[in-house]
Amino acid sequence: MKEHKINKTYQEINKKISSGEVVVVTAEEMIDIVRDEGPVEAATRIDVVTTGTFAPMCSSGAFINFGHSVPTIKASKVWLNNVPAYGGVAAVDCYVGATEPCEDDPLNKVYPGEFNYGGGHVIQDLVAGKEIHLKATGYGTTCYPSRMIEKKVSLDSLPCATLCNPRNGYQNYNCAVNLTKKTVYTYMGALKPKAGNANYCSAGQLSPLFNDPYYKTIGLGTRIFLGGGTGYVTWSGTQHKPSAQRTEKGIPVTPAGTLFVMGDLKGMSPEWLTGASIQGYGCSISVGLGIPIPILNEEMAQYTAISDEEIFTQIIDYGSDYGNGISKSYGQVSYAELRSGFIKLDGENVQTVPLSSMVKAREIAEILKQRISKGEFLLGEPQFTLPVQM
Amino acid sequence: MYSKILILQFSEAIVHKPLVCALVRDYDLTFNILNATVFPRKEGALVLELYGSRKNFRQGVKYLKDQGVQVKNAEQEVRRKEEKCNHCGACTAVCPTGALSIRRPEMIVEFDQKKCSICELCVPACPTRVMKARPTKHVFFE
Fold this sequence. Notes:
The structure holds two protein chains of two kinds. Chain A is an alpha+beta fold. Chain A is about 15% helix and about 30% strand. Helix content of chain B is about 15%, strand content about 35%.
């Protein structure tokens, strides 16, 4: 006897995409469909569920090959618009990280610093088609005699540019409060004293990894929406922690799975890769990411029907605890509560502040739905799925 | 309750007169001084936020003008570059007046300029830097 009543393969779904018969819905639309029709009926009718998320994702960056000039150089130090890029790779390759501030940034010398320009902004400027000033120095060798070059580059003129993000799409994230007596400025935003506000950062029911909590369809080769273009999941992200405690439905109640993603920067757009300046913390980049989830069986239909009422996270103190490595939870709250505008903490109403854009997340799920429905986007079958135990 | 930020300029002839206190005593207005400069034996400038009923506010301002004080609206406003806003919501953590708020359930971040007190806290709090404070017409201190 088969394990599931409905059994579909990636090939069957891709055939339907090519012939235009595919039925695609967003993860938000799927909630009511499964509630009304049940998972088996939903799995019969629906082939793909699209997800989306748009938020600052610090662990992002791009490998850039800027081509040889004459005389040749082995660039060991590289700057893009005065933002240092890592040059310890081959002669004219470098990696620009999203959180690298520009060389003369005053940082937090006058607290809280503004961090107006960094690696994330360089990436946004590149995909916007702007010219970037590149400077590189080398120590000079016989094969690479030049010691310094300066030139203007743009995305079109670069031989190669690959977005390569070692940790994106966190499956769940903390809800941050500040229990000290002074306002603090963190990567979770401004936090007023005595729990004046509670900041959270997840697309909840639309977030990719909440819709496939055990990564049954996500792994090396999963084709995704990335930065407005097409990308791939290539590995589990850094800090991937599938062993986190989970609810009955498999939803982790603390930060858990993460994704390593890549894609050709040349197909991406500044609307979905936006430089971010996080007051008092640093530079970053907001990344638009969406994953189509194939409804291979009724189990996947059930997973993709998850709603904000069933997704929970922990309230963590970022005023003092977090910086001291104390992972004490001051309470568990659902994303439905967080999205309502207020949560209860010690009997008091606390204003909630989202940092992840639901407007953009919805737009991504909708774009992905359109691309698949029109036959422009086929599903990528993973070579192996992300680890569930580590 | 009505409130507005005003710039008062006192000419050399009236700079020594105690005029602003009359706003409290005779017109039942409250004020908060945001900036004050007195140039010795020359002129003075005062930026204050004035609160009270609309009627008292109008009469108080009329009184100042009658005394020879130049009254101008604070020539500063905060604007949002609408098309660049990502609607994340980070600004709502710092906005003290609710000018920046979230429309639910759509989760769209709305900016109501009428409620804005021009505190400018949102300017550096916005990760994409879409909030800009800018002078409207005149220079603050000419």
